[in-house]
């Protein structure tokens, strides 16, 4: 996604980094346990996160709160995007 990198962390946060500035721009909070995976959308400024709290979340880089929370999984989840939409959310 251009000059930006997303990172997930055991501290339950997701961070947006600028490679140009070598700095953390935003810290997204919402998960209750470690975040194992974060994936950019191929369109727009959206991304998903997957956590040990058994939720997947859809985010916009323009907001610090998730747009949608997908809960009810029985174990950790994985996420990925198709070319335009969220494609897979599954429990491990």
Would you give an account of this structure?
The chain is an all-beta fold. The chain has strands spanning 4-8, 13-18, 23-29, 35-40, 46-51, 56-60, 68-70, 77-81, 86-91. A hairpin with a 4-residue loop joins β8 and β9 (86-91). The chain starts with a strand and ends with a strand. The model has no long low-confidence stretch (mean pLDDT 83).
Keywords:
4-stranded antiparallel β-sheet; 3-stranded antiparallel β-sheet; 9 strands; 0% helix; globular
First-last Cα distance: 27 Å
Please count the beta strands (DSSP E, at least 2 residues each): 9
Summarize the amount of helix as a percent range: under 10%
The biggest sheet, with number of strands, parallel, antiparallel or mixed sense and barrel status, is: 4 strands, antiparallel
Q: Are there runs of 5+ residues with pLDDT below 50, and where?
A: none
Widest beta sheet: strand line-up: 4-5-6-7
Cα shape = globular
- Counting structural domains, the number is 1
What letter string, H or E per element, gives the SSE order?
EEEEEEEEE
């Amino acid at each position: 996604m251009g000059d930006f990198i997303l990172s997930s962390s055991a501290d339950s946060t997701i961070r947006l980094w600028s490679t140009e500035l070598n700095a953390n721009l935003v810290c997204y909070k919402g998960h209750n346990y470690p975040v194992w995976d974060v994936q950019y959308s191929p369109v727009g400024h959206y991304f998903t996160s997957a956590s040990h709290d058994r939720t997947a979340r859809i985010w916009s880089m323009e907001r610090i709160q998730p747009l949608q929370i997908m809960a009810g999984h029985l174990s950790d989840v994985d996420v990925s995007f198709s070319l335009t939409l969220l494609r897979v959310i599954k429990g491990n």
